[in-house]
Amino acid sequence: MKSVVVFCGSSEGNDPEIVECAYQLGARLASEGITLVYGAAKIGIMGKLAQGALDHEGKVIGVIPDFLKLKEVFHSGLTQLIITTNMHKRKLRMHDLSDGIITLPGGYGTMEELFEMITWAQLGLHQKPIGLLYVNGFYDELLAMLRTMVSKGFLKQEYYDILLIDNSIEGLLNKMKNYQPLPLPKWIKKEQL
Fold it and tell me: What is this structure's pTM?
């Protein structure tokens, strides 16, 4: 993996362990020479993530829609800042720039980004590893809900397993580097990807 997109909150929340984990993830990506792609904010978990990478001489690409530049207070010290016209183009650009996907804690926007990437993988639109950094029990209820989806027959186990989960940065990155994607669905042709 040469680049990873990280989806996370523009708020810091109220758990210092999550804030520190975001900083450490940025630092670790930088130390491994992995470019960080993220939502371009200098505030919240996003800001800590970017600062961790920048403090360790990492390459950081921020992608933000024009209308959010003021609301999310974009980071002016990035390696590259890409401005899009809307949220959908932002997500597509972030996806196109990355070889893997990691999700940290966040709110609705973070969940929407995670589930869209998982859905695209389920449909065979990409075969990138998707990681969930499980910090301090933040995702307990979400993971319980996903297991309920499997047990009630709404989600196949193989699609549940698309989501790589670990509570350590090192463990998650190792799982992502060793990820073996599912074969493309028979109804998807290679040229459709």
Answer: 0.92
CATH number, domain of 111, equals 3.40.50.450
Task: Select from 80, 30, 76 the least CA-distant residue to 52.
Answer: 30
Q: Do the beta carbons of residue 65 and residue 86 sit within 8 Å?
A: yes
Secondary structure of residue 59 in the 3-state scheme = coil
Would you state the structure tokens that stand for residue 28, as one six-digit string? 């670790």
Q: Are the C-beta atoms of 45 and 106 separated by less than 8 Å?
A: yes
3-state secondary structure of 21: helix
Chain centroid offset of residue 73 CA? 20
Quote the number of domains for the chain.
1
Task: At 158, list the tokens.
Answer: 């193989």
Q: Which of 164, 191, 137 is nearest to 18 (CA)?
A: 137
Helix (H, G, I), strand (E, B), or coil: what is residue 30? helix
- Identify the CA nearest to 63 among candidates 1, 6, 121: 6
* Cα–Cα dist 8/138, whole Å: 12
Is residue 81 one of the residues assigned to a domain? yes
pLDDT tens for each residue of 114-160: 999 999 999 888 999 999 999 999 999 999 999 999 999 999 999 99
- Our CA angle for 159, 161, 162, nearest 5°, is 65
